[in-house]
Design goal:
With 69 residues, the chain is mainly α. It has one domain. The protein is 75% helix and 0% strand. The chain has 4 helices and no strands. The longest helix has 30 residues. It is elongated. The chain starts with a helix and ends with a helix.
Length: 69
């Protein structure tokens, strides 16, 4: 593999990782503010739950009903 090709691939990977990091941070901020859509996306995309926040909000969450909570 040529150096230029390697650098182009590495740049795309780095851009993707930065984009994912920023997306996760934005979703975390939204979830901490009580945004149900952010909580759902965190769970769907990353398998991440925030139980203390889920308990604090009054909106029923789909996975809480499915598990019988």
């Amino acid at each position: 593999m040529k150096t230029r090709e390697y650098l182009a691939i590495k740049r795309r990977i780095d851009d993707f990782e930065l984009s994912e990091q920023l997306t996760r941070e934005k979703l975390m901020q939204g979830a901490k503010a009580g945004d149900v859509a952010s909580l759902c996306l965190l769970r769907e995309r990353y398998g991440l739950r925030l139980p203390l926040i889920e308990d604090a909000i009054k909106v029923p969450l789909p996975w809480r009903h499915a598990s019988g909570n």
